[in-house]
Design a protein that fits this description.
The complex is a heterodimer. By secondary structure, chain A is of the alpha+beta class. In chain A, 45% of the residues lie in helices and 9% in strands. Classes of the chains: A alpha+beta, B alpha+beta.
């Protein structure tokens, strides 16, 4: 980035101070710069790509407090809302209720919460178990090494969310590629905008199809709302885009990155594999969510009123970035926070966020991860990396952290 | 122990059901939490406090005896 002067010379503009890079050789740990900030004090301003200096909040208690504060807005159209990167600044239009505030946010969100409630998700567990077992059967019958992302981590949640929403799985190549571009921070803003548009238009057309021929899926469940005038077709398409994207990309990254983390911590993997106890697996899933916190680089908000926090004031209109990957490593809340310990009680982690925007699909994500982690290592006990860990391509450039591919063998 | 649930605040994350299934459920139409037992036995105190602690909407308050 350069700044042009009237005499024709250019000088480098100040480099962004956020997002911060992770340390080489520490793929599971948040950026050391975030740890420094957390130790130094509760609030700090850091410059982002557009030259603005939002607050970066790094401590667990402060993040939870601000994420649950009604004076903190998720509305990306408000002045001061900080997009952590230039590409993240594009393509946010009509992106469902995730970028809205209450009461409109709550009104729309409640239209799609029923299918994700705990008891309905539990009823899906046997079907998810069958999907996981079939994919493992296929891997065991096929050649090795194999890319675990392509053969397992991505298909599991894609199959599940497609079926739940009523999106044809045959289109998975299309929606997976566009989802990947949409959450990549490496693509140009134009590419990100194009990916959003492609997904949105695809789902808009699918909503039209559901209106013509409703089925028993979640998107068809929106049809009566549209008919009653409670929901526009555009809002329905925005919600569908959000659910499809969030429903497969995040879980896929947890499966693949979680497997790398466990293979690098064989005692922890053995604990899950050999326990034969769903409670141990469920606890391990919470700890992996805490430890890996794949939605990295900050949850963005903007203050709508002056907020006093630890003797400092966040003014109305100030941007706020909350990287929960460091909140989840706060030593004031989690003892020895940088240690992966599947037996610790990590249930109060904030990997799904906090406040009214906390992930609505979390019961589904939990159940999928419990089935996956409770099955994969038991069925393939010899599972190992087929490449040195430092050659694995980690998604440093994404809004969601993970690995691009994961060659494994057994 | 008395449990108070504010359904207006609830965002249907279902965390309370996971933490204390004998005390909380979710209503069928939209997943909003419902209170099954407003005065749960002391044996469930730990689960109920966990439910309140993890509720992202701060919709659960507990009045201890």
């Amino acid at each position: 980035m350069t700044t042009a002067f009237s005499d024709g010379t250019t000088t480098p503009a100040a480099e962004p101070e956020f997002p911060m890079p992770r340390a080489a050789g520490c793929p599971f740990d948040p950026a050391p710069g975030l740890k420094d900030l957390q130790q130094q004090g509760p609030l700090a301003r850091r410059r982002i790509w557009d030259g603005s200096t939002p607050w970066v909040v790094t401590r667990y208690d402060d993040q939870r407090r601000l994420l649950a504060d009604p004076r903190v807005s998720a509305d990306a159209s408000r002045p001061g809302y900080p997009s952590p990167t230039r590409s993240a600044d594009q393509g946010n239009a009509s992106f469902g209720f995730i970028l809205m505030d209450d009461p409109e946010h709550a009104r729309l969100r409640r239209m799609v919460t029923a299918p994700f409630m705990v008891k309905r998700i539990e009823a899906m567990r046997p079907a998810v178990q069958r999907i996981v077992d079939t994919l493992i059967d296929d891997m065991l019958a096929g050649p090795k090494p194999v890319d675990l992302v392509e053969s397992f981590a991505l298909p599991v949640p894609s199959l599940v969310i497609s079926d739940l929403l009523g999106v044809p799985y045959d289109d998975h190549g299309f929606f997976q590629q566009n989802s990947k571009d949409l959450i990549s921070l490496a693509v140009t803003p134009q590419q990100r905008g194009a990916a959003f548009k492609a997904l949105y238009e695809y789902l808009h057309a699918l909503i039209e199809q559901k209106i013509a021929e409703p089925a028993g899926d979640v998107l068809s469940g929106l049809v009566p709302r549209i008919a009653a005038g409670e929901l526009t077709r555009s809002d329905a398409a925005g919600i569908a885009t959000l659910l499809l994207l969030a429903g497969h990309e995040t879980t896929a990254n947890m499966i693949a990155l979680g497997t790398v983390a466990l293979l690098e911590h064989p005692d922890q993997l053995a604990r899950i594999r050999d326990a034969g106890d769903p409670k141990v697996v469920a606890s391990a899933v919470e700890e992996l969510l805490r430890y890996l916190n794949i939605t990295h680089n900050g949850r963005s908000r903007v203050a709508t009123a002056d907020i006093e926090i630890n003797g400092q004031t966040i003014r109305a209109g100030d941007g706020i970035l909350m990287p929960t990957e460091i909140g989840n490593r706060d030593p004031a809340v989690f003892t020895d926070p940088d240690r992966l310990d599947v037996d610790r009680d990590a249930r109060h982690h904030i990997a799904f966020g906090f406040g009214v925007h906390q992930c609505l699909g979390q019961p589904l994500a939990r159940m999928e991860l419990q089935v996956v982690f409770g099955t994969l290592y038991r069925r393939i006990p010899g599972l190992r990396l087929a490449t040195p860990v430092d050659e694995i391509p980690f998604k440093h450039d994404g809004a969601v952290y993970g690995v691009y591919e994961l060659p494994v063998t057994w | 122990m008395k449990v108070v649930l504010d359904q207006e605040k609830c965002v249907a994350s279902g965390q309370c059901v996971v933490a204390a299934e004998d005390v909380f459920d979710q209503r069928d139409e939209d997943g909003i939490a419902v209170l099954l037992d407003a005065q749960p036995p002391a044996a469930l105190a730990g689960d109920v406090h966990q439910a309140a602690a993890v509720c992202p909407a701060l919709a659960i308050t507990i009045q201890d005896d």
